[in-house]
Amino acid sequence: MNPTGFDIKEFKAAASPNSVYAKRDPWARYETWRYTGPFSRFNRFKRIFPGLGIATVAFAGYCTYEHFFLKHDDHHGEGHH
Description:
This protein is 49% helix and 0% strand. The chain has helices at residues 8-14, 20-24, 28-31, 41-46, 52-69.
């Protein structure tokens, strides 16, 4: 449910000037732009974290590099002097 209380399918149907809903609410077809195209629910949530994909790949690459190429000193605190 969107903030106005109408279903998105109703808004898409309201874009048609011959729809029953458009005849009941003359402003409904002017509201359809809010829930279609670049403003659809998927597109709004896709752009919440713009750098998350690149950062995730970079972090995974660094973790892989660290695991395979950097020397690990795993003998901390064992008392081998």
